[in-house]
Predict the 3D structure of the following.
Amino acid sequence: MTAVAEYLRPKVVMLWGTHAQAKAALLPTAGRRHRLLQCNHPSPLSATRGLSPFMGCAHFGQARAFLHAAEPDRPPLDWRLDLPLP
């Protein structure tokens, strides 16, 4: 993950669940060039529990807004699943 963080183009890293969140320390530039978003795992057992539930976290909207602000000329992300594969 450190190599990913060193790449200059802005990116969003979504860490869902405690196992993934343990990797946050490997992203030293979070909050500057990149955006780090964390919440519970989206599994049915934890998606609505705890201090940072997955349901309602709005990570996809936050990612789109952050990347659009960082690179306004780049087309916005389209998260729809019904798009044909390239």
Q: What stands out?
A: The chain has a mean pLDDT of 84.
